[in-house]
Amino acid sequence: MLKIDIIGGEMFDEATEKFITIKPTTLSLEHSLIAISKWESKYHVPFLEEEEKTPEQIRYYIECMTITPNVDPNIYKTMPMWQIEEIMDYIRNPMTATWFGDDGNKGSGRVKREIITSELIYYWMVALQIPAEYEKWHINRLLTLIQVCNVKNAPNDKKMSRNEIARNYDAINAARRAKLNTKG
Question: For a tag on the chain, would you pick the N or C end, based on fewer CB atoms within 10 A?
């Protein structure tokens, strides 16, 4: 969770042509599956795609990340760029020491490119029996957990050499001969 202190102050609302007073506020933010779901329900595009977001989309995502109750919506309009950058750094933070490669052991990321939406992440959670309360985790930690589950649940597709196959057959045959008390 990230906490951001908003100084407050006054801003001019062009729509009403009046000054608005904004009280100092501390925002608690979480980059989570819940926040992504809210954002995707408004914009109808995958949040986790590499496409650049507009300033309006970024500010709305910060609203979606907010878990502080009863926040004045004008807070997001007055947030300075340096605080938005601090939030973006938090979003980009992997929040884990685990890393993966193409072989599932090291490096970064996916081998096959797939469009990831919140519904797909929820599907993965259901398929892997990850409890629903994990939707509140930082999304990078949740995606890492999903990847760890996939690696640990994957069958070992390592091909055996001819010598390994012959040794396995020899062991199986020896076990059968011992069980049946035969010589061949």
Answer: C
